[in-house]
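WARN no homologs supplied; continuing
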Amino acid sequence: MLPDPFSRLPLSATKHIGYQADECIFRMGEKTDAVFFVIRGEVHLRRYTQNGDLITIHRAFSNQYFAEASLFSDNYHCDAVTVQNADLIHIDRFKVLELIKADSDFALQVTSFLAKQVQDYRRLLELRSIRSAKDRVYAGLVEGWMKDSITSFASQIGLTHEATYRALSQLVRSKRVAKLARGKYQIAF
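OK structure emitted
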């Protein structure tokens, strides 16, 4: 079952799809037909600059939605590519829009969800502007973003996994963070 707000959709609006690593889900310019939910895996939303450089504009991890903007756009504005094997739920854009028109409570839930996404993205941008790896890792832990692996957490906050491991070690030594088990940390109180 999908988390809110899309949990209210009928089963006919969703489809489970498995993808291999480095598989393209959609390409920039293609007609939009879905919002996606990551059950397992990692998906990068990518775009090429005018100079031809590849940039990742968003990383979606397990239990996260992506391509939400496609609800209100005719074409995808980037490529979506799996970074590892992934299981996704394809959520039919047109069925979401139908329910938004028919159910004002659902429309408010979707609006609230999208507003929270904007806040979360702004917080991520703010966090990524922290220069010190130790302070960035600590801020990410405070936000509760270390859910899966340290490698995924490092990718999300824009650090290498090596820099993240070093920062975690420093935070444990300074007793600001407690190591609970291999790969499991929490803020020390």
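Helices lie at 93-102, 104-128, 133-143, 150-157, 161-173.
OK
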